[in-house]
Specification:
Strands 27, 29, 31, 33, 35, 37, 39, 40, 42, 43, 54 and 57 form a 12-stranded mixed β-sheet that branches. The protein has an 11-stranded parallel β-sheet with strand order 9-20-23-26-28-30-32-34-36-38-41, with no helix packed on it. Strands 10, 11, 12, 15, 16, 17, 18, 21 and 24 form a 9-stranded mixed β-sheet that branches. Strand 11 (about 110) and strand 12 (about 115) form a beta hairpin. It has about 725 residues and is mainly beta. The longest helix has 12 residues, at about 705-715. The protein is about 5% helix and about 35% strand.
């Protein structure tokens, strides 16, 4: 069906009980397309005697729905007017109400009234057909300055834009090499009832921005910094630029906001009160979640993977609130827009994803259901930087993986929880996702979880656990046992994920692998392995083994290969030195030049091996960890509760915390006093206890340790 016509009304007073309609027409059968809505514009002095909701330009359909048209209302005292786009509740395709766009580009030529972009291909006006091209749109010729001035376009070619001379001289605000963008400015903008509005230009709203009832607004940038109100309820904003920059305080009360982009940067306090916010990034002094609030990121699709990144001085989550990205990672088979029976995995692809009735993997392996393929584990336990994978779809839908949360904060208080769990109760379980926290102090009575998702029936695979890493100065105010990345299942159990905890005073950190008592298959938490071999070629930074077949890194998918692992290039000597791998091919390993010259400690013909070094290593709750490399544990080594560890070799030492001179397990003023007493020969403390606190590995307690301790406790 064709779309309806445009209606324009210009009046002093509009009254009555009737309606103004430019709705699209219906089709007569399933699969046949309905028409989109038309356009209505009303200019008025007084519209108070007419029901504005009776002015419609929607699609009207019972079959294949068209997009909403536009309703523009402008009082003669308004500068910009109001735009309403409302599809009456009919679900339609993405971007089904496109606004004409100039888009962005770079100026290659400029005069007072003509802007040239030789690389552009602007749509052309045509007087014969009535095509407008860009005529009537507004352009900001310099997006790099703070001047909000725009210019009205009166003509254009494919590469030039001519503006109204009455708006001023383009050369006074812009220059060749500068960037331009189109701009829409409204008093109120209301997107309702499944309308889906799209433009490549910026949108500025001074009054009310409303996106409700399944409405979607997509623009290059949505500027609401001067808006009177923001009403987002069951609506979605898509913007590549932050919504609120440099805002001193933002409080959301009883709001639901879905933003497929960053909320803002350089913000003061962001407070959620009984609100739900989905965004990709917040940079603020303080973030507070209270009164059953939820902070999340958008769900991953086959086209886009999301994450939530928080940079904040203080993060507070009360006991009723949470950061929750559970089920928002890679899609399960048959979930969302993934039409494949395979779950999606690293690289946002079904290639290598779990199949059939098998659960998904990330830190731990998903359970293999009915012998179907299970995707490999991936990522670095020290730096969770990926979402969890989706489970196989079997005869229905597989659970999606957990999403990814990355937090850099001065302090974090968690009385609620941070969750990146795999999706449960589908044919299979998604794997747990990723959580990275870097903070000075972590406190609270809550929990941090990246557990795998459950399946819905016997024989169908649950997801493996995800990955959590916490870097901290002080974690004494938080219960470490509340940090989990296990499989969660009542049927076919997945493998445990990884929890890595690293104090800033420790060199290696602690690894905890705990499956919560769930029995799982052998080697269900495999650690990446270099394995052992014989050197066939060697330079200062490159080791070659022509007989090797090392797993390859892939920047496109995020596969790490051997990057980040440690290698001992000569297992035949007593030198414990290892070298950090920064790249590899199938037969070569390149190490960090800062670690030294490998030819000083190894030669062609020597044997090499990978090495994992931990301060503490805990393997618990039926977890089954495996690696082909060596493991070195400097302090506490525990394998308990039916857990298993398979490695090439395991070596345990008993070395204390650097700076903990008195051996109490913490660093305080007593350590500084004792260190100074030792330096001055005034202490008879046993040498073994003293050496536990060695900071610079010179096998003694000296002035360096005293200075380190004083600097540490001064924080």
């Amino acid at each position: 069906m064709a779309a309806e016509y445009t209606s324009t009304y210009n009046t002093g007073v509009l009254t009555g009980s009737g309606a103004v309609k430019a709705d699209g027409g219906n089709s007569n059968s399933s699969g046949r397309g309905a028409g989109g809505g038309g356009r209505i514009a009303v200019y008025y002095d007084d519209i108070s005697g007419f029901e504005v909701s009776h002015i419609t330009a929607a699609s009207v359909s019972t079959y294949c729905n068209g997009g909403a048209g536009t309703v523009y209302l402008k009082s003669f005292i308004q500068e910009n007017g109001d735009l309403i786009v409302d599809n009456g509740g009919l679900v339609t395709q993405n971007d089904s109400t496109p606004l004409r766009s100039i888009g962005g580009g770079t100026i290659t030529g400029l005069s007072a009234t003509v802007l040239t972009d030789e690389n552009a291909d602007f749509p052309l006006p045509d007087a014969a057909t009535g095509a407008l091209g860009l005529i009537g749109l507004e352009i900001d010729p310099n997006i790099g300055d703070d001047d909000p001035t725009t210019f009205t376009i009166i003509d254009n070619t494919a590469t030039t834009i001519t503006v109204d001379a009455a708006d001023g001289d383009l050369t006074t605000v812009a220059a060749v090499g500068g960037s331009y963008i189109g701009v829409y400015t409204f008093d109120d903008l209301r997107i309702r009832n499944n309308a889906r509005v799209f433009t490549e230009d910026n949108i500025v709203v001074y009054g009310v921005l409303e996106v409700t009832g399944g409405g979607v607004l997509t623009a290059n940038y949505i500027d609401v910094t001067q808006a009177d109100d923001l009403v987002i309820v069951d609506g979605e904003l898509n913007s590549s630029e932050p919504l609120f920059d440099n805002l001193t305080e933002l409080t959301l009360i009883d709001d639901v906001i879905v933003l497929n982009g960053p909320l803002g940067s350089n913000m003061g306090t962001v407070r959620l009160d009984n609100s739900r916010l989905s965004t990709t990034a917040i940079e603020a002094e303080r973030i507070v979640l209270e009164n059953t609030s939820t902070l999340s990121h958008p769900a991953t699709t086959t086209q886009q993977v999301y994450r939530l990144e928080l940079t904040v001085d203080e993060l507070v989550i009360d006991g009723t609130s949470r950061i929750d990205v559970s089920g928002k990672g890679y899609l399960g088979g048959g979930r969302g827009d993934n039409s494949s029976v395979n779950g999606m995995t690293l690289g946002n692809t079904t290639t290598g994803g779990s199949e059939g009735y098998s659960g998904a993997s990330y830190g731990g392996l998903g359970c293999q259901g009915y012998s179907y393929f299970v995707n490999d584990v991936y990522g670095d336990y020290r730096n969770p930087n990926e979402s969890g994978s989706g489970g196989g779809g079997g005869s229905g839908s597989g659970g999606s993986g957990g999403g990814l949360v990355r937090i850099n904060a001065g302090s974090v208080t968690i009385d609620g929880h941070i969750s990146a769990g795999g999706e449960s109760d589908y044919i299979t379980g998604g794997s747990g996702g990723g959580i990275y926290i870097n903070t000075g102090v972590l406190t609270g009575s809550g929990a941090v979880k990246a557990d795998g998702g459950n399946s819905n029936s016997s024989g169908r695979g649950a997801g493996g656990g995800g990955r959590i890493a916490v870097y901290y100065d002080d974690i004494s105010g938080f219960e470490v046992s509340h940090i989990t990345a296990a499989s969660v299942s009542t049927y076919c159990n997945g493998g445990a994920g990884t929890v890595y905890l690293k104090s800033f005073i420790r060199e290696n950190g602690d690894l905890i692998v705990d499956n919560g008592g769930l029995v799982t298959q052998n080697d269900s938490t495999p650690l990446r392995s270099i394995g052992g071999g014989t050197i066939t070629g060697l330079s200062a930074t490159v080791l070659t083994d022509e007989n090797a077949d090392f797993p390859l890194p892939d920047a496109a998918t995020g596969a790490l290969g051997l990057i980040g692992l440690e290698i001992d290039p000569n297992i035949g000597d007593d030198d414990p030195r290892t070298f950090t791998i920064i790249d590899n091919t199938a037969t070569t390993i390149t190490v960090d030049v800062a670690d030294g010259d490998m030819t000083q400690v190894a030669a062609v013909g020597d044997g090499y091996i990978g090495v994992y070094t931990f301060d503490d290593l805990y393997i618990r709750g039926m977890a089954k960890v495996s690696t082909q490399d060596n493991i070195v544990v400097l302090r506490i080594f525990e394998v308990s509760d039916g857990a298993e560890l398979a490695a090439n070799s395991v070596t345990q030492y008993n070395i204390g915390i650097p700076g903990d001179v008195d051996g109490t397990g913490k660093i305080d003023l007593n350590d500084a006093i004792l260190a100074l007493q030792i330096v001055n020969g005034c202490s008879n403390t046993a040498e073994a206890v003293q050496l536990n606190g060695d900071v610079n590995k010179d096998r003694r307690i000296g002035i360096e340790e005293a200075i380190f301790i004083l600097q540490y406790i001064s924080k």
